[in-house]
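Sorry to interrupt, but I need a hand with the structure work. Could you write out one complete protein record for me, on any chain you like? Just paste the record in under my message, thanks.

. . .
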Amino acid sequence: MRARRWLALFQLGVAFGLAACAGASASRPAPNVRGAFFARSVSDLQRVSRWYCENLGFRVLRQNLGAEPKRALLARDGGLLELLEFSTARSRATLGLAEDGRDARGILKIGFEVADLDAAFAGARARGVAIYFPVVRPPGSELRTFGMLDPDRNVVQLFGR
């Protein structure tokens, strides 16, 4: 059920994305963007930092475990991930929101491309990572993908051929 719901959201996102990009102006070219940056509010900074390092190969650039909010900046291959632990933050479930993020606007999930998707999937399963949906190839896509859940049940999606 989750995989079908995810696939429908993915297809809708692709359709809207293609329509939005079709109107881009050639007279005003977009900047040459590299890498990515995401920030996540987490329940336990050290536990979630360790998960991203052990399961996705991030490394901690810096962290502050003192003042509120606790924070860590992780990096990997041009991507940056900032993790923040706010003492007043609550989970989506506590707020009565759906796990898949459909009840709130903003970033629903984060994702990364990997060289060997099958090895990444096998490795995640071997490490006991919670799998959100198995490897699928969305219709019309050159890439296959699977989703997993970080310790706070945020969806992390990996893509590959």
In short: Residues 6-19 have pLDDT under 50 and may be disordered. The longest strand covers residues 70-76. The chain has two domains: 35-89, 99-161. The domain at 99-161 is CATH 3.10.180.10 (2,3-Dihydroxybiphenyl 1,2-Dioxygenase; domain 1).
